Amino acid sequence: MGFTLHSVCFTLKVSLLLGSLLGLCLGLEFMGLPNQWARYLRWDASTRSDLSFQFKTNVSAGLLLYFDDGGVCDFLCLSLVDGRIQLRFSVDCAETTVVTEKQVNDSNWHFLMVSRDRLRTVLVLDGEAKPGEVRPQRQNMNIVSDLFVGGVPSDIRPAALTLDGILSEPPFQGFILDLKYGNSEPQLLGNQGVHLDMEGLCIENPCENGGTCFLLDGDTLPFDWTPAAVDP
Predict the structure, then answer these.
(1) pLDDT digits (tens, 9 = 90+) for 78-98
(2) Fewer CB within 10 Å, N- or C-terminus of the chain?
(3) What pTM value is reported for the model?
């Protein structure tokens, strides 16, 4: 009985570990198709908030994320331009642009965070921060739309989009993982042309001895468990 109980407890611990790791392995794969998009519940970045995710790509241009105030004045657009991350945002029609020095179209994982603090927005790429600031009369950003990732639906009227030409932006091609608003995972409202699993990532670095791979902090983590390695 004791051995059986021990086995059940160990199995439960392993199951919990696998469940937590598998949660980290979920993400979005964008194929770079026309009219692809993922739509998340609105990010309340009007005053202070952070958004972060990990990504990997080998292309030099593409739309990462976008939201706006419904065609009036305010927006935030994060995109790939010449292999670098470009952040454009506007508050009360005062607009600025921030571009990273580092190129990211190297098929490696990168960590990116957008930190909003009223008129100041900081772009953080792999620990390196680049701030951007505007000086309008209004102190907060108006946000009406949901958050669009990888592209914007083509059926949205251009008049309802603040940034001219956003529908013509090339779609993102690559992987986005672990998108968070602060410390919370946002609700995915819908998607088109997007794969919602990350199984292909583990195939890139197969584990030994038939073990199962999981993604943790941007690296493939081998979970190579054998019964002989466990004390009875």
Answers:
(1) 999 999 999 999 999 999 999
(2) N
(3) 0.76
